[in-house]
From TrEMBL:
InterPro entries: Rhodanese-like_dom, Rhodanese-like_dom_sf. It comes from the Archaea. The lineage of its organism: Archaea, Methanobacteriati, Methanobacteriota, Stenosarchaea group, Halobacteria. Gene3D superfamilies: Rhodanese-like domain. Residues 50-142 form the Rhodanese domain. This is Rhodanese-like domain-containing protein. It comes from Haloarchaeobius litoreus.
Length: 224
């Protein structure tokens, strides 16, 4: 089983076309839904955080956010962006915004793309993701010991460019990963307060599977 233990220290249910990382003039970029998203090194975003020169957006599920998040970050899940309770949509469009997730930047890049499509002009994503921020001892709220699992599968190659989602519906935690040209995918799952018996929902455009985490992580998922 693909699993390790991760220690976090204190302090549109939809799909999206997500391309690989590209070399950009000012660092790395990725392309999501036609939007070019800037990926910033975690140390640079930490400098912005310390200088209070950026606002931070947690693109994970609300359950993960409530367990632990970057100090002063707001919750704005990539799975339901821009809703009536989303605080980000009230920010000025020229606000410097840093999105992050834990996978390490699939969900955050999706959230950033939605923001750019809505007129926000200074949007960035933490390249290495939330857990690199934690590993470096940068400020977070909350403390949790979270297991890391990999769930790999195959779906119809026609699903290439869409997303595979893994969700704990009971606690509102989710992760996602892009589906490759051959239909393969690997989702990195770091959920709080779950066990190998926790039933998760895995969905691709072609199928949905509900099964215990241990079974999903123990082999190649190819359908129900």
């Amino acid at each position: 089983m693909r699993r390790r233990t991760f220690l976090a220290s204190s302090a549109a249910l939809g799909t999206a076309g997500l391309a690989g990382c590209l070399a950009g003039g000012n660092g790395n970029v990725t392309v999501v839904d036609g939007e070019t998203i800037t990926l910033q090194p975690v140390d640079k975003t930490h400098d912005w955080h310390q200088a209070e020169s950026a606002r931070f957006v947690d693109a994970r599920g609300t359950g993960q956010y409530e367990q632990s998040h970057i100090v002063d970050a707001v919750s704005s899940p990539a799975s339901s962006p821009g809703g009536p309770d989303d605080p980000v949509m009230d920010w000025d469009p020229d606000t410097r915004i840093v999105c992050y997730c834990g996978c390490p930047h699939h969900l955050s890049a999706m959230r950033a793309a939605h923001l750019q499509q809505n007129g926000y002009s200074d949007v960035h994503v933490i390249d290495e993701g939330f857990y690199e921020w934690v590993d470096r001892g940068y400020p977070i709220t909350g403390r949790s010991s979270t297991a890391f699992y990999e769930i790999s599968g195959e779906t119809d190659p026609n699903d290439a460019g869409e997303m595979a989602w893994v969700r704990d519906l009971a606690s509102d935690q989710d992760e996602a990963a892009p589906i490759a040209d051959d239909g393969s995918y690997t989702v990195h799952v770091r959920f709080a307060d779950i066990t190998e018996e926790t039933v998760l929902t895995l969905s691709t455009p072609s199928y949905t599977v509900e099964a215990p985490l241990g079974r999903l992580a123990d082999g190649l998922v190819t359908g129900p």
